[in-house]
Amino acid sequence: MKLASLKSGGRDGLLVVVSRDLVTCQAVPKIARTLQCALDNWDEVAPQLEKIYARLNAGSADKAESFIEEECHSPLPRAYQWCDGSAYINHVELVRKARNAEVPESFYSDPLMYQGGSDSFVGPCDPIAVLDEAWGVDLEAEVAVVTGDVPMGATVEEAAGAIRLVMLVNDVSLRNLIPNELAKGFGFYQSKPASAFSPVAVTPDELGDAWKDSKLHLPLQVTLNDEPFGRPNAGEDMTFSFAQLVAHAAKTRELGAGSIVGSGTVSNKQGSLHGSSIANGGVGYCCLAEVRMYETIEGGKPATPYLAYGDTVRIEMVDESGASIFGAIDQEVVRYHRRTT
Amino acid sequence: MKLASLKSGGRDGLLVVVSRDLVTCQAVPKIARTLQCALDNWDEVAPQLEKIYARLNAGSADKAESFIEEECHSPLPRAYQWCDGSAYINHVELVRKARNAEVPESFYSDPLMYQGGSDSFVGPCDPIAVLDEAWGVDLEAEVAVVTGDVPMGATVEEAAGAIRLVMLVNDVSLRNLIPNELAKGFGFYQSKPASAFSPVAVTPDELGDAWKDSKLHLPLQVTLNDEPFGRPNAGEDMTFSFAQLVAHAAKTRELGAGSIVGSGTVSNKQGSLHGSSIANGGVGYCCLAEVRMYETIEGGKPATPYLAYGDTVRIEMVDESGASIFGAIDQEVVRYHRRTT
């Protein structure tokens, strides 16, 4: 089943069930007004939503409306938790190699994970708004899951069963703020502005064979200023599955329903800078930092700039027939202006 | 005005207005069912809540009920953001001194802040539940504020004006998990289990002269196993005011209404181990780590153990007449057991 939240519903959006082909949708206020509400009561609510989904796909829904991605907020416009792993160790290996450092052995068994801000996500087609280009704006294309309630100390198997939804995310980073912030020792805060998620979140069963061992085995398509930039397979080189990431998150505390757990920047192992870009036959990248690390490793310094005002980023994933699964994250970098109220 | 959330309201609690003396309360479902709902619509809702508050205090409320702290969840049982500063640099100085390291000069102008988990707080009288005593359970008694919406790049003055509520918090830490986790570079995650907040959150005006320059100038009373453990003044030695902490948090992103910003462990400058305990005439401590740092600095190693199963922690603040302002956080350390559903 596919779910989205329309901006018309206010701070938490209006939950709609979306047809598989992303053409129609239906609000379900009598079942659950918001996605958080559905997640809070999932066992009771999900079967009812599935019925609506079946009718939408059959063209027999009586209240179907056109589904418009631009009218969507992120599926959870604000969430009680957003934590992000670094499951693609290749990315970490490149970071370290670029500064001539070793990857600690423990990184292959103990996931890196940071607690992100979840109070003010932006919509999938909203701009990446920053006050200063010099902060070093970078995209990070990732996959993320939404959990139900998870008990403290959940096993990996239990964690796998607690995954309710899958979606895409652009976990924007302010690269030039990261070194100082991490040097302080308490992790990211200012260097991680608002993330955006794909218009649609889907249940794992919707992904068919592509969802296996709690990994999503399909290429993640990233387009930068209308040029292909990345298409690494999100199921490859993922050192930690989503179930492992969720279990890591639940080691010392319960996770509340609606917790979002991210994969970290998707990254496939490739040989070198020359062969890694899509133009040269590689699978490309899911963040600019990765190109810059290849450049640093091979040329001593980065050459590709971070994002500038006016740059556009599109993140999408298609099924084997070429149809978009989650809709597209489609953002432009702009200067932030305060909302007028 | 004083506000609380009763557990009877479910995941988000039932908002009640509480009388100044914490004796009576009244639910206000027609005005706002939950505290988050009130914060989302504060300008419209607050004046209506103030009227109920005035009636409660005058003894003329028609629907007043007894207020029972044990029936409370944290004022926001789950929140969209919980970030915690380290505003009392004395604490950081002791940490560094205990390992013979200098405090970077930037720490006096650029606050340390970490993003905490906010999806599953526990109630003020709920146990501190852990799976393993060996994790090194420590209390951290702090003050926290709840904000309204804050625009990106808000000035310190604007941030001060966005502070809606003040409360107390026990930001439990798992000390023995911290070194490994911070060494990974991404900040705290597993080492910060669920926090608990005081039963009652109050508007800044309720604090009178004690709320000055966005600091709360009253002693924070910490009791450990029924013995006085700390009473440092939360208004002293606070290097960064709450307004500065909120402005720091909003530098690169908007803060959503209901964001909780903490002060970090309250800590006053004291001379040495001998003179710092309450028994020896000092103001004591708000976490066990601080005693242990004094012990390490003076004796080479810590002597005081972390919390064990059965230990109790009480955190409270009283006004000049001796009346409790926020009610008490009153927790016992226990082994975690899964909820039966």
From TrEMBL, chains A, B:
<dbReference type="InterPro" id="IPR041072">
    <property type="entry name" value="FAA_hydro_N"/>
</dbReference>
<dbReference type="InterPro" id="IPR011234">
    <property type="entry name" value="Fumarylacetoacetase-like_C"/>
</dbReference>
<keyword id="KW-0378">Hydrolase</keyword>
<dbReference type="GO" id="GO:0016787">
    <property type="term" value="F:hydrolase activity"/>
</dbReference>
<dbReference type="InterPro" id="IPR036663">
    <property type="entry name" value="Fumarylacetoacetase_C_sf"/>
</dbReference>
<feature type="domain" description="Fumarylacetoacetase N-terminal">
    <location>
        <begin position="1"/>
        <end position="78"/>
    </location>
</feature>
<dbReference type="Pfam" id="PF01557">
    <property type="entry name" value="FAA_hydrolase"/>
</dbReference>
<dbReference type="Pfam" id="PF18288">
    <property type="entry name" value="FAA_hydro_N_2"/>
</dbReference>
<feature type="domain" description="Fumarylacetoacetase-like C-terminal">
    <location>
        <begin position="82"/>
        <end position="333"/>
    </location>
</feature>
<protein>
    <submittedName>
        <fullName>Fumarylacetoacetate hydrolase family protein</fullName>
    </submittedName>
</protein>
